[in-house]
């Protein structure tokens, strides 16, 4: 086997765990020229990790052979386990951890996760079915999201999961469904808070929202809900996602707790459920610093002791996380199928692209395009002594949007070599337009 030298240096912190990058090449795997390095120093020096790329202890090359085709997504089982353990260790013992299935709904990931977390958050009837296939009991599954169809609400009520109501109309439909089925529907009210979260990559609360019932309207909706005979459990607030700032996550949690305690006065009985959301972010670019989990955990412990438990002694308190649990455990591996020069730029054309990993192309909600960390995972064809070079890595789709690495410094890669794109464990395949241009779907493996 070729002893490949890979360097994925454009990444701060312990980004890859079992997904081990690199070696002693002198290239900077993913130096993003568009990132203001002067703020955080040279990202090339920030990650000293060296070694061949492995996922779950298996080299990328062997894995590609085992999978049988490229491109593919590989998720590292052990890394997911460790991340959940880290979160559990940081959070107070009486706070439950729910996994947001939308981040990565691959069935093998779900089954693995089912043994690690307390519950699942689902966002569609399809996710609900997958969640119910696991060992997680229905009463630990919550269903949030606007625009639930009556068919989906019927599935949810019949299964006995918690429906997180997003509107008065949804409430009325759940009531009809419950009457039709002769069941008492378990419901929580998703509240659109009266504050916004600073630092969140994506805001889902505050201001006008399609999500949840505006906080000021909650008392009247609670009255309707009580009259409808629904089994009201409590509140769900999800204010934002992809937040790397611990102070801002802490503030959101504080404000969420205060809001819930205020609204609890209008509830038909003591709250049995309080879902505080999550929004813990992961670093995607050299300038991103990992979230300070300990700070979030300490803040939550204090909140639980001083505010939550005195008022809500029996409530299940839940933190709901997606990308934080799986995002860094995944890698997208794609093969170089062409290498060409055009007016001074060297392009590596790979067999993958935005149809599988849209987020890495910068077209999944990013305001400013930044390169995802990437590396040459295995250089089967290249001369090991070759000098590094600056290249642009593009996918195989016939659109300039299909840009995976803009002017990155990599060890010289040839046709046949493997390119790994990191941080691919969340919002990868299922958040990408797989039908676009009719290429085959990639394989996903949990290793
Ligand atoms: C209600 C809800 N829960 C959980 C999540 C998961 O967010 P993340 O993957 O950033 O943790 C989202 C994301 O949009 C969401 O809308």
From TrEMBL:
Keyword vocabulary terms for this entry: Decarboxylase, Lyase, Pyridoxal phosphate
A matching Pfam family: Orn_Arg_deC_N
Skewed-composition ranges (Basic and acidic residues): 30-40
Cell membrane keyword on record: no
Domain Orn/DAP/Arg decarboxylase 2 N-terminal: 78-326
Cleaved signal peptide residues: none
N6-(pyridoxal phosphate)lysine found at: 102
Annotated GO biological process: lysine biosynthetic process via diaminopimelate
Cofactor(s) listed: pyridoxal 5'-phosphate
Active site: 398
GO molecular function list: diaminopimelate decarboxylase activity
Region (Disordered): 1-52
Annotated protein name in UniProt: Pyridoxal-dependent decarboxylase, exosortase A system-associated
Organism from which the protein derives: Streptomyces radicis
């Amino acid at each position: 086997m070729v002893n490949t030298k890979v360097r994925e240096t454009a990444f701060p912190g312990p980004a890859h765990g079992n997904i081990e990058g690199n070696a002693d090449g002198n290239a900077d795997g993913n130096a993003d020229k568009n990132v203001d390095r002067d703020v955080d120093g040279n990202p090339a020096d920030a990650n000293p990790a060296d070694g061949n790329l492995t996922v779950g202890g298996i080299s990328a090359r062997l894995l590609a052979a085992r999978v049988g085709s490229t491109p593919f997504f590989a998720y590292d089982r052990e890394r997911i386990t460790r991340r959940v353990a880290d979160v559990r260790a940081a959070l107070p013992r009486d706070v439950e951890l729910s996994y947001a299935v939308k981040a990565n709904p691959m069935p093998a990931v779900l089954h693995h996760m089912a043994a690690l977390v307390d519950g699942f958050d689902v966002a569609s009837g399809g996710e609900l079915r997958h969640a119910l296939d696991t060992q997680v009991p229905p009463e630990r599954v919550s269903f949030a999201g606007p625009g639930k169809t009556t068919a989906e609400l019927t599935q949810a009520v019949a299964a006995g999961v918690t429906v997180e109501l997003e509107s008065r109309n949804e409430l009325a439909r759940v009531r009809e469904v419950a009457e039709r089925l002769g069941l008492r529907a378990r419901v929580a009210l998703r509240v659109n808070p009266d504050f916004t979260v600073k630092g969140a990559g994506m805001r889902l609360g505050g201001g006008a929202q399609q999500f949840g019932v505006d906080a000021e309207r909650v008392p009247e909706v609670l009255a309707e809900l009580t009259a409808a005979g629904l089994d009201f459990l409590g509140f769900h607030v999800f204010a934002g996602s992809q937040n790397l700032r611990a102070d801002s996550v802490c503030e959101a949690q504080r404000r969420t707790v205060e809001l819930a305690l205020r609204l609890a006065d209008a509830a038909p009985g003591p709250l049995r459920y309080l879902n505080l959301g999550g929004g813990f972010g992961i670093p995607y670019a050299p300038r991103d610093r990992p979230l300070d989990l300990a700070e979030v955990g300490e803040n939550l412990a204090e909140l639980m002791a001083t505010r939550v438990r005195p008022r809500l002694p029996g409530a299940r308190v839940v933190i709901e996380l997606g990308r934080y649990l799986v995002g860094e455990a995944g890698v997208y591996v794609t093969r170089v199928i062409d290498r060409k020069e055009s007016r001074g730029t060297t392009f590596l054309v790979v067999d993958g692209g935005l149809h599988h990993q849209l987020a890495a192309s910068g077209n999944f909600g990013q305001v400013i395009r930044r390169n995802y960390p990437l590396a040459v995972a295995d250089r089967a064809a290249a001369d090991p002594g070759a000098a590094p070079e600056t290249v642009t890595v593009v996918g195989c789709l016939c659109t300039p949007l299909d840009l995976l690495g803009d002017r990155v410094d990599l060890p010289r890669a040839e046709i046949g070599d493997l390119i790994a794109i990191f941080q691919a464990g969340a919002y990868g395949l299922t958040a990408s337009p797989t039908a676009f241009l009719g290429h085959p779907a990639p394989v996903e493996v949990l290793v």
